[in-house]
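Box 3.1 — From sequence to structure: Globin
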Amino acid sequence: MPADSRPEVEAPCASTGLLASQKVVIATSWAVMMENPTENGVEMFVRLFKNYPDVQGHFAKLSTLSVEELKRSPVLIAHAQKALAAINHLVDSLDEPGELVASIQNLAQDHQHRGVTSDDFKIVLSTLQSHLAHVLKDRYDDVTATAWKQCCDVIWSVVDADMNKNS
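Predicted structure (token representation):
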């Protein structure tokens, strides 16, 4: 009888708590979003503003625009592209915890100066997850949802700690 016939258990990353398999799921599912980053980014922000109209007020140049105007707004398009590029960088940094944390802290500081709170980030991260579910459809299974929830929880905890430190 072998000394240990139990299957090998995946150890979570000490910094993020994510399993290697979850990082793969996150990267694979994110690649689908990045097939059309402009459209997906704009749709995600439109979803955010529809579900949380107060958040639209953080964007002076967008605060009075209708949904149809938002979809065509160069300001929203540029911000959506920038946001998805930032998330893409975070996904690419999942195996580099120091870089990941520093990048999240930079995002937190940049947004805090604009009056964005950690609660606002929580709303955006929730919207990101619901938009991923919309884009991925049946590919957004329980494994994918759990991986993204844990990833977003890590992002939010760094944002919250950084914003509370700087307030």
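Summary of the box: The chain has a mean pLDDT of 93.
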